[in-house]
Amino acid sequence: MFETDRTPKRVGVVGLGLIGGSFAKAYADAGIEVFAADIDERAMNAAMAEETVAGPLDEATIPTCELLILAVYPQAIIEWVRSHEQFISPSTLVIDCGSVKRSVCPVCFSIAERRGFTFIGGHPMAGLQYSGYRHARADLYAGQPMVLVPPEIYDPDIILWAEEALSPAAFGSFSITTAAKHDQIIAYTSQLAHVVSSAFIKSPTAQKHRGFSAGSYKDLTRVAELNADMWTELFMDNADNLTEEIGVVITELGRYRDALSRGDEAELHALLEQGSIAKRKADGRYSDAREGGVR
């Protein structure tokens, strides 16, 4: 069994973008010493000037950290673990924050098992349409969900350890899943939304919208201004799941188009009503009256 209190006294953060920077600020605000690594010297300098980061995360400080948070692109996560595995203490918990898990977790699980430290896949379900340390916030994760992906065979106490270690970030809930299930669901909840937003904004009408748009336009285009380097890597790592989800949307859009082309008002109404019901079901707000429930 692990100790009751596993809140770290020293944390290492790899990557000081929006995600890593927000973790760094949350831990620093909690009075926890933070060391960090980032290829962007400006982010490092800003974090150190603000006293969010105490110093560089390197071969001298890595072994002293009880928690390591890896908030970089998936392939960079693997490369960092491989190149620094010899410095990670067996008593350290390593959590990655990559948006895909099948490409990251198996490799890192294997390294962790060989080296004796603990690795858990993680994905904070929070973010902004903006990136970079300048947008990082200590409260970014407050009340938000966190997904954890433990090894296939694991001691349940490592989940309690992870939850305690992440407590300064103030997540509202934790979900435990597999790498495969994570990637399947995230293809829909995150990646598909970015693809649709990117496609939607390419209409020539977008350049003429000023004065004619409100909440719907803003909601659909919020994530269109994305980091193409990062999302290309994420989409390619999860291409099978994302392709399937895109196919569903294409099929459904075809049904709306066909109903409009035929002037089929009844079919269009049915499609719209089906979508409304699907939304309420997805949010847990729908019960079919024919089954004794209420709407």
UniProtKB/TrEMBL annotation:
GO biological process, one term: tyrosine biosynthetic process
Entry keyword set: Oxidoreductase
PROSITE patterns xref list: PDH_ADH (PS51176)
Domain spans labelled Prephenate/arogenate dehydrogenase: 9-290
GO molecular function, one term: prephenate dehydrogenase (NADP+) activity
Coiled-coil spans in chain: none
UniProt-listed InterPro entries: 6-PGluconate_DH-like_C_sf, NAD(P)-bd_dom_sf, PDH_C, PDH_N, Preph/Arog_dehydrog, Prephen_DH
Entry keyword annotation includes Transmembrane helix: no
Protein name according to UniProt: Prephenate dehydrogenase/arogenate dehydrogenase family protein
Family designation: Belongs to the prephenate/arogenate dehydrogenase family.
PANTHER family: PREPHENATE DEHYDROGENASE, PREPHENATE DEHYDROGENASE [NADP(+)]
Pfam families, sorted: PDH_C, PDH_N
UniProt KW Nucleotidyltransferase keyword: no
